[in-house]
User: Fold these one by one.
Assistant:
Number 1:
Amino acid sequence: MNVCDLCNVSLGADSIRYSSKQIKKAVGAGLRPDSILLNFGTALGMSKAETEQRWVQQVMSGNNDWLLCPICAARFERFIP
Ligand SMILES: [Zn+2]
């Protein structure tokens, strides 16, 4: 079962796929993950800022597509032209 790359909910047939190129553009424009994902980092003892920074580095150096739930996809769309 796939989960949303931004908020970790289980995805249904209405999930939307984005390419790594679109993702990097959106993250470069200020897109950040849902606080649920940042809480994973803080649970491991990292600060929220550190978790966010690591997440951005990981995204920017990665080449994976994302699958997003409709709610996150709507949020994502606001960061890409
Ligand atoms: Zn989501």
Number 2:
Amino acid sequence: MNPIEITVPRLQRENIHAITLWPFIFYRKGFQDDIALRCHEFFHWRQAARWGVIPWYLTYLALQLFYFRRAADQHPLEAPAYAEQREVLRLLANEESIGEHLATLRVSTKA
Ligand SMILES: [Zn+2]
């Protein structure tokens, strides 16, 4: 199973470029082809699928209570997704292959 990816004109806040609301991933218009961002969201989506969607969101929201004042990438469920996103950006900047990341996360590549 794969996420249903949808591009929308705007999300709830200007600084939010994408959000995973299982089974969907919503992208703000202009960010839908950002492959590093898509890896970040696919990371969340696959993790939620593994954990079970409800337990994942309950854990996410519970942790949010403790981490909402900190940088977004400090949240324990965000840290690995941001790490994934940064690594893909690093590989792209070095003109190295991101194929392994796309395969692991099973990120669909549009024709
Ligand atoms: Zn995230």
